[in-house]
Design brief:
Helix content is 17%, strand content 30%. With 246 residues, it is an alpha+beta fold.
Length: 246
């Protein structure tokens, strides 16, 4: 549990866990909503405010049905939240950029506006041949999705030809296998590690940070990155700011 009060609960979802059961994944034995509510009566269950993809790790908010849940959902609908993700991708990305490529939503194949800003924190080149190349190159990127489309960051970086490491659906299988064999890490390297949102009481801003999963350590600590990896969160933190301040 990252934070809990009467109106909002923040938890850190591990990789490969559904936020809640869906028609497609109805066979999955566990999901985050059930785990959050395992000690609660059914009539007092908390509900997820938003979702993360099953393979993605990071912060997810829950709230009791009613005013608190509705207020938090509106923060996401009207894009008043600040969301920061970290990812490791194949190849060397530009220093910074913005991807503006319309994407379908989870329930509608008609593409809608989608925008992701990113900046490159560090790059690394390993002297290991992968696929047709004599070396293996990767970038550590900080991403700020300004919309919330289905698989947005994963699809936007595939569009740039820099797929995320560990992405079994959109990624490069050769690089996925290499990284897993080299580091023992076979998770999707995409983490929703920072979230800022107005608290449902309307008087303060909730600022949340979640450390990247342990599986990131072999890459961050052992690879010879050129750049600054210190921006990747390695500890959890929770703080409040007065949302009424100028």
């Amino acid at each position: 549990m990252l934070h809990e009060d009467d109106e909002v609960t923040a938890v850190v979802k591990p990789n490969r866990l559904l936020v809640h059961r869906t028609d497609i994944d109805f066979h999955e034995p566990f999901n985050l909503r059930d785990l959050v509510n395992k000690t609660r009566d059914k009539d007092s269950w908390l509900q997820p405010v938003h979702r993360l993809d099953k393979p993605t790790s990071g912060i997810v908010l829950f709230a009791p049905p009613g005013d608190a849940l509705n207020a938090l959902k509106l923060e996401f609908v009207h894009r008043r939240t600040t969301k920061v993700y970290w990812a490791v991708v194949r190849g060397w990305t530009e220093d910074e950029g913005v991807v503006e490529k319309p994407l379908p939503t989870a329930h509608n194949p008609e593409p809608k506006e989608a925008r992701t800003a990113y900046r490159t924190l560090a790059r690394v080149e390993l002297s290991n041949p992968v696929g047709p190349y004599e070396t293996a190159r990767y970038s550590l990127v900080e991403c700020r999705p300004e919309t919330g489309r289905f698989h947005q960051i994963r699809l936007h970086f595939r569009h740039l030809r820099h797929p995320l490491v560990g992405d079994s659906r959109y990624g490069d299988k050769k690089h996925n296998r290499f990284v897993a064999a080299e580091t023992g890490t076979d998770i999707l390297l995409l983490h929703a590690g920072r979230l800022t949102v107005t608290h449902p009481d309307g008087t303060r801003t909730l600022e949340l940070q979640a450390a990247v999963p342990e599986g990131w350590a072999p890459l961050l600590d052992d690879w010879p990155w050129e750049g600054d990896t210190s921006g990747v969160p390695r500890i959890d933190s929770v703080s409040f700011a007065d949302s009424t301040a100028d």
